[in-house]
Amino acid sequence: MFIRKVKLTNFRNFISTSIMVGKGVNFFYGENGSGKTSILEAINYISQARSFRANKNSTIINHEAKEFVLFSELFKESKDFVSRLGIVRNYLGDIKVNFNGVPLNRVADLANNVCIQAIVPNGLSLLEAGPAIRRSFIDWGCFYHFNDFSEISSDFRKIIRQRNILLANKSSKDYLEYWNNCFAEISQRVTEKRVEYLTIFNNYANDITSRFLPNIKISLELVPGHKLGISDFLSQLSSHSGREYAMGYSLFGPQKADLCIKVNNKPSLDILSRGQQKLLVIALKFAQGIVYQNLMNTNCVYIIDDIASELDTNSLYKVYELVDELSDNNQFFITSLDKDHQKFTSKFHNEIKMFHVEHNDIHESDLV
C-alpha cells in the first residue's frame, strides 16, 4: 500500500502535525534537530510498530504527554478505497492498533499492510555489527517471501525458549530429548527458508550493487549456526550437551546464524571505503525491496534518512537515478540537510513533493 496521509500527535516534539504526502518521492529538508528523522521514524512505526533509533517507547512520547498517537491513510494503486490505520502507545509500552475500525490483535500484522524498507545512518551496522542484525536482514526478506515463515519463526521461538528453560534448570536428558527433536526439526525449516531466500536474493543484490560499485562481485553466504540435516544436528546437540547444561542455554541453532558478506571473495570491511560500504548497504536494501515488489506485485515504501551522508556527488547521482526509476511503482521518503538536491531531482520524471521542516513544523515547499 501507498501512504497518503500521516498525522503525528505527541510523537517526539510534534504536538499535532498532519501532512498529505505524494505517491512518488517525498523530500524533507531542514537543519539538524528540526524533526526530519522523527517523520521517518513515525512512518516506520506504521509498518513495524517500533522505532529504528530508540529502544524505549517512552523516549518517543512527547515529554508533556502520556501517550502518542499515529494516524495514517493508506491506499492501493488499483483501488479507490482508502484504508485508515491508527496506533496509540503509552509510556508503559501498551499499544493499541486499529485498522479500518477493527482492532489488530497482532502487531506483526502491520507489516502485511505496508512494506517499509528503512535506509538509515546506522545502516552500516549491517556490515559492522554482530550477527543479530544480519539475521534480521535475512528474516525481513523471508517474512515477505514465504507465507509460512512468520509461523515457523514463532514456533522456533517457543521451542528454543522451552529448551533453554530445561537447560537452565538442569532437567533430565530424557526430558530434554523430546525438545531436542522438536528443536532440530524447526531449526532445519528456518535454515532451509533462509538458504532458499538468499539463493534468490543473491542475483538481485549483484545487479543493484554493480550499478553503484562497478567491477566488484559480492557474495552472500549463510553461516547456519548448526550442522545441516536433522540427524547431524541431533548428534551435535548430544555431543555438546555438557557445555549447554553448563551455560544454561542453546549454543547451536538458527539463533546463532550469520550472513557472510564478501566482496571479490574477501570480507567487505577489508575492501571497501566508508562511502563504498554505505553504497553496498543501500544496494542490498534496494535489492530486498525489488525482490518484494516482484514477488508480491505491489509497492514498497522506502525511507532514506540523511541520504547525502558519506556519499560523494557521483555516488549520489547513481542513488537518485535508481530512486527515480523505482518511484514508478514505489514510494519514497527522503531527508537531507538542504534543498540543494534539486540538481539531482530536477530530471525526475515522476511525482516529487518537497517539504521544509523547521522547529518541528512541516510546510510543503516549491520545487524551485
In short:
The protein has 368 residues and is of the alpha/beta class. 43% of the residues lie in helices and 24% in strands.
What number is the mean pLDDT? Answer: 91
Number of domains: 2
What structural class is derived from the secondary structure elements?
A: alpha/beta
Percent helix among the residues?
A: 40-55%
State the strand order across the main sheet.
Answer: 2-1-4-5-6-7
CATH topology name of the largest domain: Rossmann fold
Largest sheet geometry: 6 strands, antiparallel
How far from one another are the termini? 29 Å
Radius of gyration: 22 Å
Alpha plus pi helix count: 12
* Shape descriptor: globular
- Note the beta-strand portion: 15-25%
What is the fourth-level CATH superfamily of the largest domain? P-loop containing nucleotide triphosphate hydrolases
What is the name of the CATH class of the largest domain?
Alpha Beta
Low-confidence stretches: none
Order of helices and strands: EEEHEEEEHEHHHHEHHEEHHEHEHEE
Strands, count: 15
Protein name: DNA replication and repair protein RecF
Domain RecF/RecN/SMC N-terminal: 2-358
GO biological process, one term: double-strand break repair
InterPro entries: DNA-binding_RecF, P-loop_NTPase, RecF/RecN/SMC_N, RecF_2
